[in-house]
Amino acid sequence: MSFYRARLQRTASVQAVAAAVTVTVKATPAKGYTTTSFYVEVQWTPGYPGPFSCSVEFGDGQSTGGQVPTSPFTCSHTYASPGTYAIKATVRDLSSGGVGSGSGSVQVASAFQVTFSANPTSGPAPLTTTFTVTIGGGYPPYSYSLDFGDGTAKATGTGSATVVHTYASVGSYTATLVAEDALSTTVMGQAIGSGLLPLLPRLREAFPSVFAQVDDFRAFRAQIVDGPKARGRGAAVAEKGGWPWNGRDMSVEA
Question: What CATH number does residue 72 fall under?
């Protein structure tokens, strides 16, 4: 009788699976304007062995990317139009083949715009000036505070406005506007001069009889001509009511 020994051999195949890459996306700031440069930081784990490729889509049809040895990948972007945009990043481990993606978002508004003007900005005291405040864009609600610079109470409001103010005393002032939306602050200034000029019209209005005599004197001076009694360079003699007058020293001559 014969005996046989049998040997059973088993084999197994092992396949290495690339580790998944976990990706996070952070945009700073989360809210901004069409004038804002948004900073985007993409981080991932595991951060080895690498190298890694990273691509970023900004949600407005624009994208960027590159190869880096390890986490993070950073970039910046400015949006041309208002809106809410989803930012998507995809990271691939070029060594193991692992891949992952993550996303974030930003809110974009049109630029916060403020205009500030005053009219008039100079004149005699008391000076009444009209200030015009125009606010738009950005993130409502709006607010403003207008300091006239002369120690009087500030004017405040919640949007575009026309403010009338009177500067009672002579001096130079700076009117300062502080305007805000829900996200930022804008400060603007206007120089205001309240003085005595033009003074002559105000004096003429206050003392009409005095200026009537001045006007009469001016008319008299206009009649001055060189005459036979003139003496010396620049002397002038005129007649008013039959009286000779020496134009140099206001004296009359016999």
Answer: 2.60.40.10
